[in-house]
Specification:
alpha+beta, 17% strand, globular
Amino acid sequence: EQSDADVGVIHTGFYDWKPDGSVREARPKMEGWIFERLLNKTGGRAPKLSTIMCRRQVLDEVGLFDSDLPAREDYDLYLRIARRYQFRYISEPLSNKRADASERLTSNPRNFVLGFEGIYRKLHAELSQRPRTHSIYLLRYAEVLARAGDKAQAKKKYIEAARLWLFNPRLITYGIKLLRT
């Protein structure tokens, strides 16, 4: 209520519970106009769904979760919000995330690939105007495909990424990851 009208989301820190019983405090880093950072996955982790507070008018304007996506619905929603609104954060951990939770949508590699693919289709026109960002997205897409066992498609995405930005410093890192999977 105290934020400016162009602030659509407030997110917080959280306690990250690991399967071995250890707990880590995760502090948010992304705030302001974060659309480009979300696309590039730079400047800190994306907000976690369990930590956000969002103005109702924002959701009325950008819509709710895309139920056609089998995974990555939160990322899709953040992108739609971040196009029009700023994000702010409260550093204090006010939520819990359990890494040992079963039945997560993203725990199924195929769902994760399909979610990545669905978002890629939605973003394609915008990414086409940003070759470097497009290259970074394709590298992450290649990594997701490789983890899901689809090395042939992963290599295709990797080559597409290299064609868009040959001197992308992430090409080597992702290339090594691709070879290891």
